[in-house]
Specification:
With 81 residues, the chain is mainly alpha-helical. It contains two helices and no strands.
């Protein structure tokens, strides 16, 4: 295997595992939000604000991984010219 094939595998793993982790995290968080708002409906607005803030942070972590993978795919510093 060449160096570029390892880069392609690494980029796929970075994006794939990041997407799986973000989806699982947001799914669990959404489920807990539904449970909490069903138990105490008066706290729904405060919980919803915190849930959307955390969803944005989870997505931001995934998008940073996508950015790093794109850097390795298009401007890889480890492969010589």
């Amino acid at each position: 295997m060449t160096d570029i094939s390892f880069v392609a595998l690494a980029c796929g793993l970075i994006i794939g595992l990041g997407a799986v982790g973000a989806c699982i995290g947001i799914g669990i968080m959404g489920g807990k939000f539904i449970e909490a708002s069903a138990r105490q409906p008066e706290l729904m607005n405060a919980l919803q604000t915190k849930m959307f803030l955390l969803a944005g942070l989870i997505d931001a972590a995934f998008l940073i991984g996508v950015g790093i993978a794109m850097m390795f795919a298009f401007a890889n510093p480890f492969i010589k010219g």
